[in-house]
Amino acid sequence: MPLSHKRGWPMRQLIAASSVILLVACAEKPTAADAQPLPVTPPAPAVTTSAPSTDIPFVQPAQSFSEWQANFRVQALNAGISPQVFDNAFADITPDMSVIKADRSQPEFSRPVWEYLDGALSPLRVRNGQRLLEQNAELLSRIEQRYGVDRQVLVSVWGMESNFGSFQGNKSVIRSLATLAYEGRRPEFAQSQLISALKIIQQGDISAEKMLGSWAGAMGQTQFIPTTYETHAVDFDGDGRRDIWNSSADALASTAHYLQSSGWKQGQPWGFEVMLPAGFDYALADGAVKKTVAEWQQLGVLVPDTSSGSEQLSATLLLPAGYRGPAFLVLDNFRAILRYNNSSSYALAVGLLSQRFNGGGNIMAAWPKDDRPLSRSERVELQTLLSERNYDAGNADGIIGANTRKAIRSAQQAMGWPADGYPSHKLLESLRSR
Ligand code: CA
Fold it and tell me: How far apart are the CA of 236 and the centre of ligand 1, in A?
C-alpha cells in the first residue's frame, strides 16, 4: 500500500541515515540490492545528464567491419541462424558512429536523485498513467490474473521505459548491436544480444527493418534487450506474434511476465519511507544487510502505518542521498524492479510512480539539496585519496560500488562521522586537506 498523504509517523526524533549510493553515473554496477540478474534494459543512464563528458577515445579495431561481419556470420550460422536471415538482416549494414559515441560517453555530471525523481514523476506522466490505467482496465485485469503483478507497477514501468510507448528509440537494433559487437566496450555482451535479435527475426515476430530500439539495443514499449525478449516476451493479444513495439497488450504482459519471474509478490509494497532514530548505525544501510521489517523496528526504525502487514518481510535500508536525506525500507518487489534496470534511483521512481497513480508516493523528508552529487572527476579523486590513505576504494573508475562505499565508511568511522558510505563534498574536502 502506498505511503499515504497523511503523516502516519509516530513522532520522535527523525535523524535520517544512509549508505546506499544513487549517483552512480551509469547503472553498470549494482547500486542498492545484491541482486545480480541480467537487466532487461541495457545499462541505463538513469541519473546522468548529457552535460560535458570525458569520452573514452575511439580505437580503430584491428579488423575491418566486413572482416568482423564475415567472422560473426560463421558464429551466427553455428548458433542456428539461417544464411538468408543473416544476409537479409546485414544487407547494407555499416557501423553507426552515433552508437559508438553514446557507448563511449562518460558524463561528467550526475543529476541529483531529487531532480531525477522530479522528471520521472512529472504531473503529466502521472496523469497519462492514470488515463491509461482506466483505458486498459480490462486488459490489466487479465494480465494481473495471469501473472500476479499489480497493474500500477506495470503502467509505471511502461511510463519509465518508453513514456507509455511513445519513446521507443528509432535505431536499427541489428545495426546498433553490430556496431557494439564490432567495436563497443562489451563486445561479447553485444554479440550474444545480436544472436538473440537474429533469432527473434528468424522466429517471425518482427522483420529486421522494423526491429527498432535504443542505441544499446533495448526494444519496444518495454525496452527489452533481445535475450530478455527471447525468454520473457509474450503474445498476449493472440495474433501469433510477440509484438512489444506495436501491441500494448503484448508489451504490458511481457513486463508482467518478467517481473513475475523476478520474484514480484502481488499486493506487497515495493517499500516505504521510514525515519531513523538518533544514533542509528548508518553502516546498516547497505544492500547486503537484510532484516525483517520487525527487526528494523526493533532497531528504532519508524515505519508508516501503511506498512502494517509487512512486519515479517525481508527489507534493506536505502538512503539515496546519504544520512541527511530520506530513508526507505525496500522489499522483494523493489528487488524485482531492480532486475528490470539495476539502478536504485530507477526502482525508486517506478515504485513511487506506481503509487502516484493513486495519489500516494510522496516523500516526507527533505533532500539535502545543498549537497550536489560529486562529478565524475571528483569521484575519481575521492577514490584515489581514499586508497592513498589505505582505505581500499578499488579501481578509481568514478563508479561508487561496494568497495568504494566500504572505504568511505571506514574513513567516516575514523573521523567519527555518520558512516553512511555516501560520497559527499564534505568528505572529499576533508580528505584533500589531510
Ligand atoms: Ca501479439
Answer: 6
Angle at CA of residue 108, ends 103 and 110, nearest 5°: 95
- How far is the centre of ligand 1, averaged over its atoms, from the C-alpha of 203 (Å)? 13
Ligand 1 mean position to 233 CA, how many Å?
Answer: 10
DSSP 188: H
Residue 335 alpha carbon to ligand 1 centre in Å: 28
Kindly list the distances between the CA atom of residue 284 and the CA atoms of 20, 261, 280, 281, in Å, as whole numbers in the listed order: 10, 28, 9, 6
Q: If residue 328 lies in a helix (H) or strand (E), which one and from where to where?
A: strand 327-330
| pLDDT reading at 332 higher than 90 | yes
Q: How many helices and strands, by DSSP H and E, does the chain display? A: 17, 6
Instruction: Calculate how far, in angstroms, residue 243's C-alpha sits from the geometric centre of ligand 1.
Output: 5
Instruction: Find the 255 Cα to ligand 1 centroid distance in Å.
Output: 14
Nine cell digits for residue 16 = 535520517
Place of cell 512529472: 122
Q: How far apart are alpha carbons 148 and 267 in whole angstroms?
A: 9
> CB under 8 Å to 280, separation ≥6 — which residues?
15, 17, 299, 300, 301
Does residue 336 have a pLDDT over 90?
Answer: yes
Cα(193) to ligand 1 centroid in Å equals 22
| pLDDT recorded at residue 181 | 96
Ion ligand 1 neighbours, Cβ < 5 Å: 235, 237, 239, 241, 243, 247, 250
The model's pTM is 0.86
Residue 53: per-residue pLDDT = 60
Find the 249 Cα to ligand 1 centroid distance in Å.
Answer: 7
Place of cell 527489507: 315
Q: Collapse the DSSP code of 223 into the 3-class scheme (helix H, G, I; strand E, B; otherwise coil) and give the result.
A: coil
- Ligand 1 centroid to residue 348 C-alpha, Å: 30
Q: What one-letter code names the amino acid at 47?
A: V
| pLDDT for 238 beyond 90 | yes
b/e code 338-365 from CB counts within 10 Å (16+ = b): bbbbbbbbbbbbbbbbbbbbeebbebeb
